[in-house]
User: Fold this.
Amino acid sequence: MTKSVALFIDGEFRQSDSQEWLDVTNPANNEVIAKVPCATEAEMLQAIGSASVAFRNWKEVAVPEKARLMLRYQHLLKEHHDELAKILSQETGKTTADAKGDVWRGIEVVEQAANIASNMMGEMVENVAADIDTYSMIQPLGVCCGITPFNFPAMIPLWMFPIAIASGNTFVLKPSEQVPLTAMRLAELFEQAGAPKGVLQIVHGKKEQVDFLLAHPDIKTISFVGSVPVAQYIYQQGTQNFKRVQAFAGAKNHMTIMPDANKDQVISNLVGSSVGAAGQRCMAISVAVFVGTAKEWIDDLKMEMAKIKPGKWDDDTAAYGPLISQQAKQRVLRLIQEGKDQGAICELDGSECEVAGEPNGNWVGPTIFSNVSVEMSIYQQEIFGPVLLCLEVDTLEDAIELINRNPYGNGTSIFTASGAAARKYQHEILVGQVGVNVPIPVPLPFFSFTGWRGSFYGDLHAYGKQAVRFYTETKTVTARWFDDDIPTGPNLTIQLK
Assistant:
């Protein structure tokens, strides 16, 4: 019997009354593994109402107790790490190794949420005027909301609700309808960790449910990760409804390869960062910019990439899994064909990829293009598949100018043996996350995930100190006490509660 995915409302896992259910499929064979409901309006109202009520008590809980909840939660996540990775693999198609990495990066953010006390500290200046002190306090906002994508069903929800809740808020999560199973297991473990009733809610659905969250007055913040058009929509609608919004969008990440770089390291890192997770990550390297004589390495790159094969999640020889859906596969195949039609040279073509025993999977093999120009659709659009574009320039300055003209600014990297070249690159590049001899420069969660330009809409980024500021408000108090009001007398005592 096909599993029916529950809602998590008011501390209970409950079956939806919805008349509209969506298929959850295994991308390796497109077999239906579960049905997920599109929550009714009544269920959405119940979730938001429960979160609003829970906030009244949760905001008053001592900060150390909130931190202890996160310590218990991260312990359970580590204990169930492999189980979570298996669930994640089956609904995303990710290989076991990739799925474990997804879960672990989420656990790292929960560990940072356990350090919430240091990030909730205000500031104080004594004697800003005669006998007057001014100090600030960090306070939660209320009910926060997260809308998460299919590609990281553990990591990205864990970017959001642990820090929001540790900061004193309550949270409504709407995970991708394509991968709801991981989120539900995260909620079960959160409940086991001792999370109070109503602090976390999970609803499911599509655009109708998202629009409801964007419009409801009790929702104070919206956190979103997804495609550029949807991120723009979320940001516009959310801010029009006077909500605080952080919307992480698409990318076109470039790796700049200098001729003095370590060739073997360059090729190894390019292969992994371009086709890992089937290219379905916003920090994937999708463009290699070869400077000067480094272009001579393209043939060697092609030979190494040709050795890479996709496969099922439990195949230890597979480098990556399938694309998430047939629709995603057809979009990637269309862009590959457009690249050929527009004059790019397809050095390695993964369009006809097959995996033994799984003829119905959403497979695309490693693909490399050379002779690419910036006018081509394969360069202008985020392909979100295992496709690498190779561009050639004469100088480092040319590479920087090329990348800075691109509308996106999520991540970039430079491979070089020159400290001077690396410093010039990191200083002048208009990209929020820069790697030096590191292909995918995603920071650990005591920093923040800082995409720029067309890759991010909002002001404050995910996790780290910026996330705490996103989920809180600052209150400033200016206080004056008069010496004449100090009580005196032989019977004066101080009582502490």
